[in-house]
Automatic annotation (TrEMBL):
InterPro entries: FtsL/DivIC
Origin species: Flavobacterium sediminis
UniProt keywords, alphabetically: Membrane, Transmembrane, Transmembrane helix
Protein's UniProt name: Septum formation initiator
The keyword Transmembrane belongs to this UniProt entry's keyword annotation: yes
The organism's place on the tree of life at top rank: Bacteria
TM annotation in the entry: 15-35
Length: 109
């Protein structure tokens, strides 16, 4: 049988067999296996993407907060978002039929 399959001669060596079993153990069966580390690396990448996204959102929000410290900007924001008005004026909201996109809350004010 060794004549037909020459690689069996090497698998008969106990050091080669122990090395192959060790490599299989490390790759697939261990708690810190290669497959498990790939899954954890993907999760780390997703979390790092979330960190960068939320840091960008924090900077956007901090800019909005700085703008809202001005009384004129607060009035402008209240008029645009909540349709507030002064005592002596009327507010008319015009909506078009073909306007399918509602106004985005992240718009600049």
């Amino acid at each position: 049988m060794v004549n037909h399959f020459p690689f069996l001669k090497y698998l008969g060596n106990r050091y080669v067999l122990a090395s192959v079993l060790f490599i299989l153990w490390i790759l697939f069966l261990d708690n810190y296996s290669y497959l498990e580390s790939r899954v954890l690396d993907k999760q780390i990448e997703e979390l790092e993407d979330n960190i960068s996204y939320y840091q960008k959102e924090i900077t956007k929000d901090s800019i909005k907060i700085k703008k809202l410290k001005n009384a004129d900007q607060i009035e402008k924001y209240a008029r645009e978002k909540y349709y507030m008005k002064r005592a002596n004026e009327d507010v008319y909201v015009i909506e078009y039929e073909d306007d399918t996109n509602p106004k985005d809350d992240t718009s600049d004010f």
